[in-house]
Amino acid sequence: MRRIILLDVDGTLVDYENNLPDSAVEAIRKARANGHKVYICTGRSKAEVYPPLWEIGLDGMIGGNGSYVESDGEVVMHQTLTLEQCTRAVDWLNSRGLAFYLESNSGLYASEGFEEGALAAVREYSARKGKEDACTMTVRDGYPEMIYDGELYRGDVNKISYVLGSYQDFLDTRERFDDLQNGTWGGRDATALWGDLGVKGITKAHAIDVLLAHLRADRADTIAFGDATVDVPMLEYCAFGVAMGNGSDDVKATADLIADDVEADGLAHAFERIGLV
User: Which GO terms of the cellular component aspect does the record hold (predicted)?
Assistant: First the structure.
């Protein structure tokens, strides 16, 4: 039976230092040779999907936490914030003194003062992911492709991520922007480090539904792999869900199988256990 495999990227396909295990590359190539289709399903926008990932050999991607769907080089869906929505959000975040960046397929665009305003969040997020040098990281280490001094009033934005000064910033932003999809990441509830704003109704699960319709494939054929809270709807939606060993407790509680850690060849071993290779 041909399977549709959906892979989160950070913490699933690559480790938290962006290292891509050779075992994962080999497993994906073998799975595709066996007739399965493999898509990354990530919060990253296309600008952050760098050549080493495409060189694995992928059938496509879901990006921006579900705002963008591409299959075999064809754009199946791309929903962005309107220019008016982006402008309102930029003005609001600036008025609250919150550092933020815009996520577009053309690049990542930083707010004024982003390097200073995001430093504590970048270091804390990296520390939570186990990076030994987290306390000395710079924002440019965390976001090497970030564009500074770029245009911030844009009509091509998939989503916006902003640093939380406190959880109240998220609550106030959610109330202010009920026409957008509001979320957090880098922790649950009050421990979250970042908030985000996206297109209303957009989730990884919705994007998978769009992809399946395009492929004329069945939900029963889907297998999802993830490690973070944002992946829970994807694992719940798909017929079979795999949580990485390094994943959060809520992902593991949702999963049908718990794999080894990403650094311990978890993806490859899970492919073997499920019978994909």
Answer: cytosol
Q: Helix/strand/coil (H, E, C) string of the chain?
A: CCCEEEECCECCCECCCCCCCHHHHHHHHHHHHCCCEEEEECCCCHHHCCHHHHHHHCCEEEECCCCEEEECCEEEEECCCCHHHHHHHHHHHHHCCCCEEEEECCEEEECCCHHHHCHHHHHHHHHHCCCCCHHHCCHHHHCCCCECCCCCCCCCEEEEEEECCCHHHHHHHHHHCCCEEEEEECCCHHHCCEEEEEECCCCHHHHHHHHHHHHCCCHHHEEEEECCHHHHHHHHHCCEEEECCCCCHHHHHHCCEECCCHHHCHHHHHHHHHCCC
Label residue 217 by pLDDT band (50, 70, 90).
very high
Q: Where does 83-199 sit in CATH, by number? A: 3.30.1240.10
pLDDT of residue 35: 97
Place of tokens 């939900």: 219
Is 3.40.50.1000 the CATH number for 4-79+203-274?
Answer: yes
**Confidence at residue 272, expressed as pLDDT on a 0 to 100 scale:** 98
pLDDT (0 to 100) of residue 131: 78
* pLDDT for the residue numbered 203: 87
pLDDT of residue 129: 78
Q: Where in the chain is the domain with CATH 3.40.50.1000?
A: 4-79+203-274
pLDDT per position as a tens digit, 185-203: 887 778 899 999 999 988 8
